[in-house]
Every structure is written in structure tokens, then in C-alpha cells.
From TrEMBL:
<feature type="region of interest" description="Disordered">
    <location>
        <begin position="118"/>
        <end position="147"/>
    </location>
</feature>
<dbReference type="InterPro" id="IPR036179">
    <property type="entry name" value="Ig-like_dom_sf"/>
</dbReference>
<dbReference type="Pfam" id="PF07686">
    <property type="entry name" value="V-set"/>
</dbReference>
<feature type="signal peptide">
    <location>
        <begin position="1"/>
        <end position="21"/>
    </location>
</feature>
<keyword id="KW-0675">Receptor</keyword>
<dbReference type="GO" id="GO:0042102">
    <property type="term" value="P:positive regulation of T cell proliferation"/>
</dbReference>
<dbReference type="InterPro" id="IPR051713">
    <property type="entry name" value="T-cell_Activation_Regulation"/>
</dbReference>
<keyword id="KW-1015">Disulfide bond</keyword>
<keyword id="KW-1003">Cell membrane</keyword>
<keyword id="KW-0732">Signal</keyword>
<dbReference type="InterPro" id="IPR013106">
    <property type="entry name" value="Ig_V-set"/>
</dbReference>
<dbReference type="GO" id="GO:0009897">
    <property type="term" value="C:external side of plasma membrane"/>
</dbReference>
<protein>
    <submittedName>
        <fullName>Coxsackievirus and adenovirus receptor homolog</fullName>
    </submittedName>
</protein>
<dbReference type="GO" id="GO:0007166">
    <property type="term" value="P:cell surface receptor signaling pathway"/>
</dbReference>
<keyword id="KW-1133">Transmembrane helix</keyword>
<feature type="compositionally biased region" description="Basic and acidic residues">
    <location>
        <begin position="118"/>
        <end position="133"/>
    </location>
</feature>
<dbReference type="GO" id="GO:0031295">
    <property type="term" value="P:T cell costimulation"/>
</dbReference>
Length: 167
């Protein structure tokens, strides 16, 4: 029985929250998604260099500590905060914006990560239309299709729990 609990604990420790991917084009805007089940009083947005992107407190954005790279380019959605939606809109994308962003609820110690990929906007030759293919229409963009948790790991955790309860 001790071995099963050790195995179960190990599986819990290696289980990580998946990183959601968002893609955008230079000069355009993207939504970096972040939702919490309970409405925390404060949420922090940081980039991978731990620079302040935006702080949200009491349903309002605070830009006092915002890094200069993000000045006048970040917007929140106040009407959605009551629903636990702390997503932000990052405008005028630059190639240097690419990377991992973290949305944190410090009261619960919860983090959500978003991987932003910034690309050059594709161009089509003048006089020719863009050819639409199934590949070009099915690619999720801008967080429309969040990635699901690793089903195999979830299955293994369930099996470990059942095993530990049985033996």
C-alpha cells in the first residue's frame, strides 16, 4: 500500500498544467486567455522575463509597474472579470513579444501560461487571391481552441487512485 501512495504522489508531482498556444502577426493584436473558477481580487500578468505586462485589481487594470515594452499596448475586458475572465489584449505585436506569458492568482498560488508565437504577416502576390485549403481554414488562431490536458496522464492518475484505494 505504501508503494501505491508513493506512485500516486509521484504522478501528482509530475502532472503539469498545459501551456496554451496563441499565434499572431506582427502589427496586429491577440488575446492572451486567462480564466479562474473563483474571482480572485488581484491577478498579475508577467512575461517570461518576469517583466510586468499588466496587473488587474478590483476589476481595473493597473499600469503603474508596467514594463515600457508594453506601454499603451495592453487592454483588459472589465465586463468579463466578474465571470473570472482575466484575458488581456496585446496590440501592435512585435517579434520580441513572442514567448511565454504567465497569469497568476497570488491569493491561491495558481498560474496559467500562454505561449505566444509572433510571425510575419503572410503576403499574397498582387492580382492573385489566396488559395483556401483545409489546412489554412482549420488552424486555430488567437486562443480560439484551447489545448486540452494530457489525456494519458489524467488516465494514469485515475488508475493510480483506483489502485491505491483497492489495495
Amino acid at each position: 500500500m505504501n508503494v501505491s501512495w508513493i506512485f500516486f504522489t509521484f504522478l501528482l508531482l509530475i502532472h503539469t498544467v498545459p501551456v496554451q498556444s496563441v499565434e499572431g502577426f506582427i502589427g496586429e493584436s491577440v488575446i492572451l486567455p486567462c480564466t479562474f473558477a473563483q474571482n480572485p481580487p488581484v491577478v498579475f500578468w508577467r512575461d517570461e522575463g518576469t517583466r510586468t505586462v499588466c496587473d488587474i485589481s478590483g476589476g481595473e487594470a493597473s499600469f503603474d509597474e508596467q514594463h515600457s515594452n508594453y506601454k499603451h499596448r495592453v487592454q483588459i475586458f472589465p465586463s468579463k472579470i466578474k465571470e473570472g475572465n482575466f484575458s488581456i489584449k496585446l496590440s501592435n505585436l512585435q517579434h520580441s513579444d513572442g514567448g511565454t506569458y504567465t497569469c497568476t492568482d497570488p491569493s491561491k498560488g495558481l498560474d496559467q501560461q500562454v505561449q505566444l508565437k509572433v510571425e510575419e504577416k503572410p503576403t499574397t502576390p498582387e492580382g492573385k487571391g489566396r488559395r483556401v485549403t483545409p489546412e489554412s481554414t482549420s488552424t486555430p488562431r488567437n486562443g480560439d481552441s484551447p489545448r486540452r490536458a494530457d489525456d494519458l496522464l489524467t488516465f494514469l492518475l485515475g488508475c493510480a487512485l483506483l489502485y491505491s484505494l483497492t489495495f
